[in-house]
Amino acid sequence: MEDESAKTSSLASFKSVFANLSVFQFLTFLRRGVFYSFMINYLFTLMQTVTSTAFLGTLDMIASALGQNLLWGRICDRVKVKAKLIIAGETIAAFSYIIVFFIHKSLIEAGSGFTAGLAIIIGLSILEFFWSMSDVGWAALLTDITTVETRGRVIGTLNFIASLGRMVGILFAGSLYDNGEGFRNGTIFYIVTVLLFIGTLIMLLLSRHAKWRSTTPCEVTSEVKETDRRSSKENEKAYKWFLASLVIIVLGAASINQIILLFIKLPAGLNTSDYEMSLILSAWTVGGMIASLVSGRLTDKIGRSKVMFLGLGLAIMTPLLYGAASNYAAMALIYGINGVSFWTIQTVGFVLAGDIIPKSRRGRLLSRYNTVMALSWGPAGILIGGPLADLQVKSLGLSPHAAYINAFYASALMVAGGAILFALKVARAQRGGNA
Tens digits of per-residue pLDDT, 125-151? Predict the structure, then answer.
C-alpha cells in the first residue's frame, strides 16, 4: 500500500514538473519565433550581403560553444545546479536584449546601418556566452527526469510544444516586423524581454517547489564497476561517431537557412509578402509539430535509427524541390515537409544522446551535442551557404535565383554524406540495442 502511494505521489510530482516545463518551453520558442523569424531580413537591409548576415548565428554559436564546453557543462556536472543555471541565463538575457537594442538604435540614428547590424550580432554573441548556461541546464534536466523507456515520448511532446510556441511567435512576427520598424522602434525587443522574465519566474517557482528525481546510491561490486567503465568507454566512442555524422548533417541542412528566407522574397521568384512568408514559415513549424509527436513515440516503439533515417531522407529530398515551387502555397507544403525532417532529427538526436551519454558526464557531453546543433544558427551559412551564393552571383554572374537553387542542391548532397556516416558508424553499432 505504501509503495502504491509512493508511486502515485511520484507520478503527480512528475506531471506537475512536466506542466511547468511545458509552459517554459512554449514561452522559449514563442520568443524565438517573434525575434528570429525576420531578424535575418532586417540585418540584410542593414548590411546588404548574405555572408555578413550569417555572422549572427556564427558568432552566437562560437560564444555558446565556449561557454558550454569550457565552463557551464563542467559546473553542471560538479555542482548539480541545473534549474539555477536556467534561471541565471534567462535573467541575464532579459537585461541584455534591452542594452543591445539601445546601442543599435543609437548607431542607426547616427546613420551607420552596417555598424548597427554589427552591434546586434556582437551584442547577442556576448550575451550567448552567458545564456548558454541555460541550454546546458535544460538539456541535463530533461535527461535526468526521463528514462530510456519514456525519453522519446517526453522529448517529442516537449518539441511539439516548442513548435507550437514557435508558430505562434512567427504569426505575431509577421505583423510586428512591419518592414523592419518592429526592430527599429524596439517593439520586438521589449516583447522578448517580457517573455524572458515570465519564463524566469516559472523556472524560479518550479525550482523552489519541485523535488527533482534523483538516483539513490547503492553498493556495487568491483566487477560491476569495471563493467560500467567498459560500457562508458564504448558509449563515448559511439557518441563521438554520432556527433561526427551529426556535424555533417547539420552543416548541410542548415547551410541554406538564411538563403531560403531570402529566396522566398526574391522579386524574380516567389516574391512573397510578409504575411505569405509567415505562412510558409508556419508550415515548417506545423510539420515540426506533427513530427515531434509522432517521431518521439516511434523512437520508443520501433527504434531510434529507423526514425532517424526517415528524417534524413526528407532532409535530402526537400531542398531539391524548393526551386520547383511555383507559388507560396507549394513552397509552404515543401517547407512543411522540411520541418518534419528537422524536428524528427532534432527529437531522435536528443533521445540518442540521452541514451548514450554516461550519467556522470551529462553536462559536458550534452554541451557538445548542443554545440553541434548550434551549427544551424549561422556557421553553416557563413562557411558554406552564404559564400556559395555570393560567389555565384558576384563572380560567376548567375542570378540570385539560380545561385540559391544550386546552394539547395549542395545542401542535399552534404546531408546524404552525413546519413551514410550515421548508417555505417552509429546505426550499425546500435543494432541489437534500443535501435
Answer: 998 888 888 888 888 888 887 887 778
Residue 248 confidence (pLDDT) = 95
C-alpha distances out from residue 52 to 48, 108, 185, 266, Å: 8, 17, 23, 18
C-alpha to C-alpha distance for 100 and 71, rounded to whole angstroms: 24
Number of domains in the chain: 1
Please report whether residue 215 resides in a domain.
no
User: Tell me: the pLDDT tens digits for 220-252?
Assistant: 344 334 334 555 667 778 889 999 999 999 999
What's the confidence (pLDDT) of residue 5? 52
If we measure between CA atoms, which residue out of 390, 420, 347, 311 comes closest to residue 162? 347
389 with 53: CB under 8 angstroms? no
Question: What's the alpha-carbon Rg for the chain, to the nearest Å?
Answer: 22
Which structural domain range is residue 356 located in?
16-210+235-428
Q: Is residue 191 part of a domain?
A: yes
Quote the pTM value: 0.75
Classify each residue of 82-117 as buried b or exposed e, where b means 16 or more C-beta atoms within 10 Å of its C-beta: bbbbbbbbbbbbbebbeebbeebbebbeeeebeebb
Alpha-carbon distance of 263 to 328, in angstroms, equals 11
Closest-CA residue to 347 (of 305, 287, 300, 296): 296
Residue at 409 is within a domain: yes
Residue 10 lies in a domain: no
Residue-wise pLDDT for 299-315, tens only, equals: 888 888 999 999 999 99
Q: How many secondary structure helices (H) and strands (E) does the chain include?
A: 19, 0
Q: Decide: 311 and 176 in contact? Cβ < 8 Å.
A: no
Distance between CA atoms of residues 422 and 272, nearest Å = 37
Distances (CA, A) of 316 to 138, 264, 425: 30, 19, 19
Q: Is the pLDDT of residue 213 over 70?
A: no
Residues 410/248, Cβ–Cβ less than 8 Å: no
Going by C-beta distance under 8 Å and a sequence separation of 6 or more, which residues neighbour residue 119?
100, 103, 104, 107
Separation CA 365–CA 361 (nearest Å)? 6
Residues in the chain, how many?
435
- Whether 287 contacts 279, CB under 8 Å: no
How far is residue 60's CA from residue 148's CA, in Å, rounded to a whole number?
32
Average pLDDT, the chain: 84
Domain CATH code at residue 204 = 1.20.1250.20
